[in-house]
Amino acid sequence: MSVVLDRIPHADVGDKGATTRSTGKAFFYVLDGMRGVAAMLVVLLHTPQFFGDVDFQESYLAVDIFFAMSGIVLANAYEQRLKTGLSTKTFAWIRVVRLYPLYALGVILSVLALALGSDPEKAYWLPRLLPLAVFLLPNIFSFAGTQPFPLNGPSWSLFLELWVNIVYGRFIAVFTTRKILLIMAFSAAGLAAGEYLSKRHNLDFGWSKKSLIFAFFRVGYSYFGGVLIYRVSAANRLSVITMNPSLAACALLVIMGALLMSAPSARVQPFFDLFCVTTIFPLIVYAALRFQPTGLTKTICTFLGAISYPAYAIHEPLGSLIEALLRKLAHFSVQDNAPYSGIVFLIALLPLCWVLNKHDVKIRAWLKPTRAKPAR
Q: Cys staple from 114: which of 28, 123, 192, 262, with CB 3.0 to 4.6 Å?
């Protein structure tokens, strides 16, 4: 699920930040752009108080795209290193360092929002919720609502991202292509079962306590699908298509965005969701590896990749904090002024996330191990 603007082989890539990653001399700029567009749609999904009636129904599927991209960039950056000596412990620490600083910032923002009265029920349970949040553990108990991560709802995907990374690193030798296909087949069956059992019969599950178990099928299919896409791409030694690469990149961004903004009928939605996650999204990210945009398109994709993880990690608690501050200090209602308040929120969010990414890179560089210790 990615950062950064690293340009050296085997540098850290995290899960929801830029996927600018080296494969020889190639970089995944299109994946950067796709990640940023998907992250912005998730922001709109999770801060409805700012945007009013603006509703992109299928934007919850962005998480599945994030997981697939994460599988690609982590396999690219770490698969050979894990096979040739990088220890599971060191790899796990690299992943924690990648995800935790901005996640922690999101928790801090949430606590500040609660202190301003954003949610009295959550504030009441804060002494119990905060220790769980510090260790990125889900609240599976009966208190504090239906979300497993009530201090920052989207953190359920970070929890899954971290653990699938650790499992992948620990059992890298076991994950042959055949076994990955078996995991994907089992996960696809789980996705279908989750759809059937969910109230709305779609793939919008995993974020609640009741459906958290089915979230493992979402990460299982898409993450290992991303690993498989990387292996196929590396084995085929794909050459970059140079004919109109920027135009092709823009087309892929538009296609992905259109899918996430679509609104299939209730009857069609279960099939639409399942087909997108199991087939269309893997094809899109596979195609994205073949194009290298240049000029302005490359710059835009790089920017979108850089702001994507900060936006994902803090948007919900930041929105709650801003809403509480304006209500308490200025008696201003963001709901009554939507979607204009949402436009201002986005305009402020983008440069903030750019700055946060730059500082996050420095923090991670300080926290990362100075050298990879071989496995014993």
A: 123
